[in-house]
């Protein structure tokens, strides 16, 4: 499996990035990190100080190369709320039946891309109004799986979030 994780160049949420990445890599899966305005090899910085090397700029990401896309939360995730490139990636993943996922505040990126319409979704409580405004049913659960879309509430649900994504990928 090959997974694309999209993180903000600054202030992504460390656990929401590191816990799933380590989980997927323990399965032997490839995880690539994309971020905005970072060249390959440059580092993104998490809210708690983690440094993560970017593999590519989000502009270079092509969904045909991946089995899943995951948008990581943290305060920096607002970078992608209205980003057309992020919206295109999310919609392409969804439209081609790939696992499309987001955690914490990042489900708002999926909502704004039109991916959550008619789906059950969760996320950080601050995002409930936006998720509901985009015709999704906000549940507030730790993790929500609706078709091939997976959303997670926040840092405490990072492991459950990763497990839900893996279950979908392994069920292919």
Task: Give a quick summary of the entry.
The protein has 172 residues and is α/β, with parallel strands linked by helices. The chain has helices at residues 14-26, 84-95, 107-112, 128-133, 158-170, and strands spanning 2-7, 10-12, 30-35, 43-46, 51-53, 56-57, 68-71, 99-103, 120-121, 137-138, 143-146, 149-152.
Overall 3D shape: globular
Q: How large, in whole angstroms, is the Cα Rg?
A: 14 Å
| CATH fold name | Rossmann fold
- The count of DSSP E runs of length 2 or more, i.e. the number of strands, is 12
Question: Can you count the helices?
Answer: 5
Give me the secondary-structure category: alpha/beta
Quick one: CATH class? Answer: Alpha Beta
CATH superfamily: Class I glutamine amidotransferase (GATase) domain
Q: How many strands, which pairing sense, and closed or not: the largest β-sheet?
A: 7 strands, mixed
* Total domains: 1
Which regions are unreliable across 5 or more consecutive residues at pLDDT < 50? none
* Biggest sheet: strand arrangement: 6-3-1-7-8-12-11
Distance between the termini: 11 Å
Instruction: Quickly give the CATH architecture.
Output: 3-Layer(aba) Sandwich
Order of helices and strands: EEHEEEEEHEHEHEEEH
- Return the average pLDDT rounded to an integer: 97
Estimate the helix proportion, in percent.
25-40%
Report on this model:
Helix content is 29%, strand content 26%. With 172 residues, it is of the alpha/beta class. The strands form 3 sheets. It has a 7-stranded mixed β-sheet with strand order 6-3-1-7-8-12-11, with helices on both faces. Strands 2-4-5 form a 3-stranded mixed β-sheet. A two-stranded parallel sheet has the order 9-10. Helix 2 (84-95) links the parallel strand 7 (68-71) and strand 8 (99-103). It is globular and about 40 Å long.
């Amino acid at each position: 499996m090959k997974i694309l994780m999209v993180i903000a160049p600054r202030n992504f949420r460390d656990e929401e990035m590191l816990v799933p990445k380590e989980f997927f890599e323990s399965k032997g899966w490839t995880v690539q990190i994309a971020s905005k305005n970072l060249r390959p090899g440059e580092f993104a910085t998490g809210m708690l100080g983690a440094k993560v090397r970017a593999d590519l700029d989000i502009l270079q990401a092509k969904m045909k190369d991946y089995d899943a896309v995951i948008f990581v939360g943290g305060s920096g995730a607002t970078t992608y709320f209205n980003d057309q490139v992020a919206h295109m990636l999310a919609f392409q993943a969804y439209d081609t039946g790939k696992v499309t996922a987001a955690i914490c505040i990042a489900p708002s990126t999926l909502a704004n891309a039109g991916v959550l319409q008619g789906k059950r979704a969760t996320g950080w409580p601050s995002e409930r109004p936006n998720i509901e405004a985009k015709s999704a049913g906000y549940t507030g659960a730790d993790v929500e799986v609706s078709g091939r879309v997976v959303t997670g509430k926040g840092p405490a649900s990072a492991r459950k979030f990763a497990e839900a994504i893996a279950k979908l990928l392994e069920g292919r």
